[in-house]
């Protein structure tokens, strides 16, 4: 996620905990409510390397990853962008837990959004299940048996609020507008129940700072119905589009993705170009230079692919949106949302660089953004600077201060602090931003100063090759980078400990 990348990079503050009683979810028999005109569910997709959503490089990554237990989602929804009404159904094939329940994240359950979320008719392998919801955490009980996976069915509905009508601290999930109706484009981020894999943070209140993505790679097919005249942009490829009775129904599909966002608007313009095997598409209202932005995004994507390996999907969608105060952008698998493009592509250049870098650092090589924001955000910042230096005259100079947490209420920079901590362990949004977006990226610059820029990039390219479509922890990332420099191992460890923090420092950071 990106914010003001001129100095502090992206800043995100998530909603403070609000105590609510755990809510039993009505069973199929107890809640016969009808969802209006919801299209038929598509078939549950497979994790198919031949999917048209993958680039040639993505197919190779997927074959090496061997995702035998990946979650697979079939979704259908009717969305009214005027009222914000979402009526959806989901059938997901997910790994069977060793015992207990399967957890799903449902952002629409955050109390501050006031969506009126209703979850009902939950089934497990076709049988009614008594699920429970605690704010954004939906727990579905699953019986034990020898099957390795389980099919979970869910119906859900809610109303997306208008942008600017929810209140809270700046850069919280209440105000950042991931679920919001805008004038030109309405945003539907984390819009359906997404599986939380084993070990992922399950905080129901999303009470820390930072992004909330901590999902497993899988396959998603979504059939979405909107009023005619509206366009639907996702991180997948459009496999079907039909017009009937004043409605447009599109089917979006993607393999190797952890989530699928939707941006919906009308009277939108599109610019399109190529970056090697990848279609680069920019969508926005008439005021946006979609063609110029597409050329810039293609050049940025090519720099990143040259350094870290191929972009894994066949398309990348850049969508001009309106986000909350101080929020510049948001990344999704196969898509980025950028605020500020109305001022010209140059005005949002660093944000675009940062968000595109997240396609490698978080979308392809995943991490738990709640427990370990120190993995993807510093790498996106470092990569942003590489792109800026490569593509713009004088680019990269804006990154000179990265590595220094900056003044804290005075003119003297504080001593480095532990940045490797969960988002709940930061005292403020300013502390989160200073350590994650300013101090921690300094490790990669310092490493380049000791080992050379080419060697640093080569080490990171190796991380991508070995962990594509997987999830990596800070400790694993540290060990991988140290192993890439056996003759300088002690120096690399010392640099990591200075800028990011020694292993376990987050436990005692507060």
Brief summary:
By secondary structure, this protein is of the alpha+beta class. It has helices at residues 56-65, 290-308, 349-357, 373-391, 429-439, 442-451, 453-467, 474-483, 489-499; strands at 23-24, 72-80, 85-95, 101-105, 118-124, 127-128, 132-134, 137-141, 149-159, 179-180, 185-188, 194-195, 218-227, 230-234, 237-244, 247-257, 262-266, 269-275, 278-284, 315-320, 329-332, 335-338.
Q: Could you please describe the fold and organization of this structure?
A:
- The protein is an alpha+beta fold.
- Helices cover 22% and strands 25% of the residues.
- The protein is built from 9 helices and 22 strands.
- It has helices at 56-65, 290-308, 349-357, 373-391, 429-439, 442-451, 453-467, 474-483, 489-499, and strands at 23-24, 72-80, 85-95, 101-105, 118-124, 127-128, 132-134, 137-141, 149-159, 179-180, 185-188, 194-195, 218-227, 230-234, 237-244, 247-257, 262-266, 269-275, 278-284, 315-320, 329-332, 335-338.
- The strands form 4 sheets. An 8-stranded mixed sheet has the order 6-5-9-3-2-13-16-15, with no helix packed on it. Strands 1-7-8-4-12 form a 5-stranded antiparallel sheet, with no helix packed on it.
- α2 (290-308) crosses α4 (373-391).
- The longest helix is centred in the middle third of the chain and has 19 residues, at 290-308.
- It is globular.
- The relative contact order is 0.14.
